[in-house]
Amino acid sequence: MNEGPRTAIVTGAGKRVGAVLAAALVEDGWTVVAHVHHADDSVPEGAVKVVAALADLACAHTIFEAARELPPVRLLINNAARFAHDALGDFNPDELDAHVAVNVRAPILLTEAFARQHRAGDDGIVINLLDSKLIAPNPDFLSYTLSKQALAGFTELAARALAPKGIRVNGIAPALMLRSTGQSAENFAIMHARNPLRRGVEPQDVVAAVRYFAQAWAVTGEVLVIDGGQRFDPPSRDVQFLEE
């Protein structure tokens, strides 16, 4: 496998786990294109910032244009996601459209752009950030969950379609890592380690998974669940709505 200079693209790299991933890849020697939504968003030191709205049909062109003069893009991490609440009885069709645009359509457009620029003989990898609630779903966050289920389906379809090109497509499905919008600090403190291992999932666990997939040249179409065994005792609702 060609292991010369290489570029990684990380969407949603201005905050939360995306920023941690971008910083870790810079540390590992990658040239990193860090996508953000707003021009005033910061990115990890050493990364190349690109601003794009993932709901825009031109988002993939904008992001890959930022990498045009950089080493070949060998890694794409579709990390950015919309996460807003709706549920049956409170379903918002506009929210479904918005979630699909950011959480499904944008990763598809970016994956297509990745495949178009891929060089024969290089190892290429796409990693989609999913959610462990797909393994044991609950009815909260209906549009978000449906969009992540669609992205999980796309992960396998893309892995099948792109394997002949030498491109691997995998997913990482972490449980609760960081406090969510609307979640109280008290609820997060209680629920973070609500799993059989009694260990809260941390962003560095996702970094470790990315590093594994980056070197696992014979692995494609897989989803790695990082949940401390939470799926063995799944909650009936999203954790932020549970009592102690």
UniProtKB/TrEMBL annotation:
<dbReference type="Pfam" id="PF13561">
    <property type="entry name" value="adh_short_C2"/>
</dbReference>
<keyword id="KW-0560">Oxidoreductase</keyword>
<dbReference type="InterPro" id="IPR002347">
    <property type="entry name" value="SDR_fam"/>
</dbReference>
<protein>
    <submittedName>
        <fullName>SDR family oxidoreductase</fullName>
    </submittedName>
</protein>
<comment type="similarity">
    <text>Belongs to the short-chain dehydrogenases/reductases (SDR) family.</text>
</comment>
<dbReference type="InterPro" id="IPR036291">
    <property type="entry name" value="NAD(P)-bd_dom_sf"/>
</dbReference>
